[in-house]
Design a protein that fits this description.
By secondary structure, this protein is mainly alpha-helical. It has 2 helices and no strands.
Length: 51
């Protein structure tokens, strides 16, 4: 049972790391594009389910 718990913790930690990397990449794309961020740029970064 302890092995299962460690596996769950490991999967959760990996998911958090990957999500953090994705967020950092998105922030770099926005910051690198220009200092002025247009509404079109913000909308283009949103997933379709939010539009």
């Amino acid at each position: 049972m302890a092995n299962v718990n460690w596996a769950v913790v490991l999967v959760l930690v990996i998911r958090l790391i990957l999500e953090g990397m994705e967020a950092a990449e998105a922030a770099d794309r926005v910051a690198g594009s220009s200092n002025m961020i247009s509404s079109e740029k913000i909308l283009s970064l949103l997933p379709d389910r939010y539009l």
